[in-house]
Amino acid sequence: MKHVIQHDLDMPTAKRVADRAFAEYKSQYPDYQPSLVWVSDQRADVAFNAKGIKLAGAMLIEPRSIALDLDVPFLFRPFQKKALEVIDREVNVWLKKARAGEL
């Protein structure tokens, strides 16, 4: 599953947005044991546990987008839409704050 969220920020600010959004997700959904580990300035490994199954992938900070690419097993695809809604909501909250100088 690849999901892209457009932004109009510089790369360091976009990375801070991703960090803040992920931290908020982690505090709201600790049962999913979300983890985010930056492996470069632009790429982070992400992982979640859902019903005992580990979902792993990557987050990429690009000049005009934040892309999340997760390997989603077939059984979990019905929940994909809800997960994307939550991710969109969190990232867009922090994009708005960054544009307002609140980051």
Protein model, in words:
This protein has a five-stranded antiparallel β-sheet, with helices on one face. The N and C termini lie far apart (28 Å). It has helices at residues 11-28, 80-99; strands at residues 2-6, 35-38, 43-50, 53-62, 65-70. The longest helix has 20 residues, at 80-99. Helix 1 (11-28) packs across helix 2. The chain is built from two helices and five strands, in the order βαββββα. The model has no long low-confidence stretch (mean pLDDT 86). Strand 2 (35-38) and strand 3 (43-50) form a beta hairpin. It has one domain (2-98): TATA-Binding Protein (2-Layer Sandwich). The protein is globular, with a radius of gyration of 13 Å. With 103 residues, the chain is an alpha+beta fold.
Multimerization status: single chain
How does the overall form come out from the CA principal axes? globular
Low-confidence stretches: none
- Tell me what portion of residues adopts beta-strand conformation: 25-35%
Proportion of helical residues:
25-40%
CATH class: Alpha Beta
Number of contiguous helices = 2
Q: What is the CATH topology?
A: TATA-Binding Protein
**Strand count:** 5
Radius of gyration: 13 Å
Q: What is the annotated CATH architecture?
A: 2-Layer Sandwich
CATH superfamily: Kinase associated domain 1, KA1
Structural class: alpha+beta
